[in-house]
Write a structure and sequence with these properties.
Number of helices: 10
Order of helices and strands: EEEHEHEEEEHEHEHHEEEHHHH
Structural class: alpha/beta
Strand content: 15-25%
Radius of gyration: 20 Å
Distance between the termini: 14 Å
Mean pLDDT: 96
Low-confidence stretches: none
Helix content: 25-40%
Strand order of the largest sheet: 5-4-1-8-9-10-11-12-13
Shape: globular
Number of strands: 13
Bound molecules: adenosine-5'-triphosphate, magnesium ion
């Protein structure tokens, strides 16, 4: 299946300050505040919603296409994604600009001072799905990105009749109720976590059944409580797969989407879609960063079968490994 992933592409620069920010803030000098913290460690993680989801799909042997704007510092990230099987042809470099970057400094009490630079992501609305003429996508994922770009891709998918999955997540707060309704109306599916689900209902004045009249199905993730898949009158609850240990929750939502989508594009049933999402999320949780985990389809299937009986259905994933 020809699947396009739209969404942010970013680097996360994560620093640790071995002290307490509060000890260095002088309340009577706030008008001339000037602080520099010598940090003890820094890591740069590859992230962003679109490549995170693409990464999981690629672990299963898919070749999803990344559709995004990136900066001049993207080349090493591109090489990494290419080596995993992600098609980065449509990751367009914006000259003279950096890839979106998140800089976070965390102190001993977990207080955080962070900055997010949108960089090349601010240009995402300049990309048009019309440019894909000749290799029309079968499915488009619209994940958190520059808000203008998200609206633009919704309009284009609707005009071009391309099925899309609407995943507004953390950008919900940057949209109006009307814009959210437009994204949901006609979407193949809505993907959100339970907090975002409540926020959407409040902002749009809709109920879950109203949403299901507009989108074919809906997936609500609930952290360690698992996830729910709503389709027509059916609701499937998907419990989590217990992690062996928890290293870092960053990217679990994206990993869940990647696992779910892999089952979905193989036309597997809802329970299998949800369970694959849950196990893909658990793998992510066990390593640092959103793309720190790895497995072969055979390893994934073996672990899946220790928890669930798939009646052999997951053998379809092994076909991809041989390609
Ligand atoms: N503590 C946990 N143990 C096992 N699985 C978990 C845990 N937390 C999350 N998951 C899995 O990950 C899925 C997505 O988690 P969650 O609902 O927290 O996403 P999110 O809030 O969108 O996360 P993100 O911070 O990545 O945006 C859950 O449905 C569940 O399967
Ligand atoms: Mg999320």
């Amino acid at each position: 299946m020809n699947i396009i992933l739209t969404g942010s592409v970013a680097f996360d620069y994560l620093m640790i300050f071995p002290g307490y920010f509060r000890d260095h803030i002088l309340p009577d000098k706030l008008e001339t505040i000037s602080l520099s913290f010598l940090v003890e460690s820094m890591v740069r993680m590859r992230g962003g919603t679109a490549p995170n989801i693409a990464y999981t799909l690629a672990l299963f042997g898919e070749h999803p296409r990344l559709f995004a704007t990136v900066g001049e510092d993207f080349e090493e990230y591109r090489a990494w994604l290419d080596s995993k099987g992600v098609d980065t042809t449509w990751a367009k470099v914006i000259p003279g600009v950096y890839t979106a970057s998140y800089f976070a400094n965390t102190d001993r009490s977990n207080a955080q001072i962070a900055s997010f630079y949108t960089g090349a992501m601010a240009y995402a609305s300049q990309l048009s799905l019309h440019e894909l003429e000749g290799s029309r996508p079968d499915l488009v994922m619209i994940s958190p990105n520059d808000p203008e770009a998200m609206k633009h891709y919704v309009t284009e998918c609707q005009e071009m009749g391309i099925p899309y999955l609407y995943d507004p997540s953390q950008q919900i707060v940057r949209m109006t109720g009307e814009e959210l309704c437009k994204g949901i109306e006609g979407a193949r599916a809505l993907f959100v976590n339970d907090y975002e689900f409540a926020l959407i209902q409040k902002m749009t004045g809709t109920t879950p059944s109203d949403i299901l009249k507009r989108a074919q199905f809906m997936v609500v993730t609930r952290g360690e409580q698992g996830a729910s898949i709503y389709s027509g009158d059916e609701v499937h609850h998907i419990p989590v797969v217990p992690p062996e240990h928890i290293a870092d929750p960053t990217g679990v939502g994206d990993a869940f989407r990647g696992g779910f989508l892999t089952a979905y594009i193989h036309s597997l049933d809802w329970l299998t879609c949800g369970r694959m999402g849950a196990l893909a999320a658990t793998y992510c949780l066990e390593q640092h960063g959103p793309q720190g985990h790895s497995y072969t389809p055979a390893e994934f299937i073996a672990r899946y079968r220790r928890h669930f009986d798939d009646q052999g259905k997951l053998d379809v994933l092994l076909g991809e490994e041989r390609k």
